[in-house]
Design a protein that fits this description.
It contains 21 helices and no strands. By secondary structure, it is mainly α. It starts with 12 loop residues before the first helix and ends with a helix.
Length: 415
Amino acid sequence: MPKLSVEVPTGGLNVRWVATGLLVVMALVFIATTYFRHVHPAIGFVRAFAEAAMVGGLADWFAVTALFRHPLGLPIPHTAIIPRNKDRIGDTLALFLKDNFLTPNVIARRMQSVDIAGAAGKFLASPSGGEGRMRVGASRLLADMMGALDEERLGGMVKTAIADQIRRLDIAPLLGQALAAGMKEDKHQPVIDSMVGWLAKALDENEHILRDMVHERTNALMRFVGIDEKIANSIVNGLHKLFTEMTEDPDHPFRLKAEEALQKLAKDLQHSKKMQKKVSDFRDELLENPAVTGWIDGLWEQGRTALLKAARDPDTVLAGKLGEALQQMGATLQQDEVLKRTINRFARRAVVGGAAAYGGNIVRLVSDTVRSWDTGTIVNRLETTVGPDLQFIRINGTLVGGLVGVLIHAAEYLL
């Protein structure tokens, strides 16, 4: 596993020089007062202060240095505590997090005061407010994730899912019910009118074909006397009259026959297994048709393009009816106390369950991360970070030691 170096702001160097300088000053005072201690009894108190201050300062220097390295490079037992116990410290820190922060009881208590539903409602109700950066960042992240997915594989999955859903759909009963409902409201009449109109138009456009057929099927004598032409005219005129009567008379026998056929079709679509199988087979054949396959491909591509465009521009999503619906949902989340409690309860259970299920992984992540840190870098940075407090310990040790030395010398002087 590669070693990681952690960049931490430097600090505490000036305090270290103060602590070291104070120790040096105490040494100089001790040397000076040693030569002049017979000049006046008060010098003895100064010498005692300096002597004890040096002892206290050196002791605290040793203690502080022993946390991070061997003092003076000497392999003294129980020194360089942090480098020698880095892995154990990481494990202990991980266990501390698990036992004090990742337990279900602790998380449940913390989640009691978290209003996730209210926060989501506020975001949806006023998406252009202070959460703009979060909204844009989330949109860009979603767009990048969608763009990074394998287009062919994802598209194949979506198109297969669409085709499977259509195959599982029993179309025949739905068509039969729709046809029966439409006929009850006479919505089938315009359909019959359209069919009759189409037949009349087809007759006008193909009248010459009908005349040629009559001409070919009559003998030479009939053609000679023009009977074939009369027969053709009678047929054409009769058909025109039939189509006109069907258009004008809603109770025409042929229209009634057409209605009967439609009623039978609606009934068969709903109840006839044979008819339903024919419709299902036609549906499956239609799905295999290259034109339909291309239509589904285009449908997926249009949907994917629209999703990516909307994800990259969140204002597009929030515009129009969808935006109004989302804002209304946000207002409901803020005002409906029952809904808020339900959502917050679900979120609390989800977080607690996630902590119970994945707390061990989080602990392992902390432990493994600490193990991967470079020892020298971590020691130097940590020492620099907590340096001011540690150096003040040295300063306090020097001063407190000096005061204790004065008290001891005073007691010795009085006795």
